[in-house]
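Lab notebook page, bench 4
Experiment: in silico fold of construct C2
Operator: M.H.
Input chain length: 131 residues
Purpose: comparison with the prior construct
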Amino acid sequence: MFEVSVEETFAAGHALRHYKGKCENVHGHNYRIRVTLEGEHVDKVSGLLVDFADIKRILRKIVAYLDHQFINDLPPFHELNPSAENIAWFFCTEMQKGLTEAPANATAQASVRVRSVRVWETDTCEATYRP
């Protein structure tokens, strides 16, 4: 099994619903996201599982949606609590969609899938989602 990972950062605000504590108030984070993809085979010509440039393109599109926004106002977080766990799930879902929609000339293969998404809200606090 092969794995490749890409990280990206963004800044955004949120407020946790149904939380008893300071995080129920509006506050922000400098998030760090690590997306890890996996697959059993690399491309025989390029030797790549998937081109880092393709991963970055998809990941940056997702990041752009959340960057410098109040996450609670954006679907699906207008209903879904914007916890680190749910943000990791969101990135996983959107990343997998992006891989499926990758152009024909991209190195992403149908067998490539999201292995995990890690979301750091701070340097010491992170959540991971694995589909």
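Observations: The mean pLDDT is 94. The CA atoms of residues 17 and 29 lie 16 Å apart.
Next step: discuss at group meeting.
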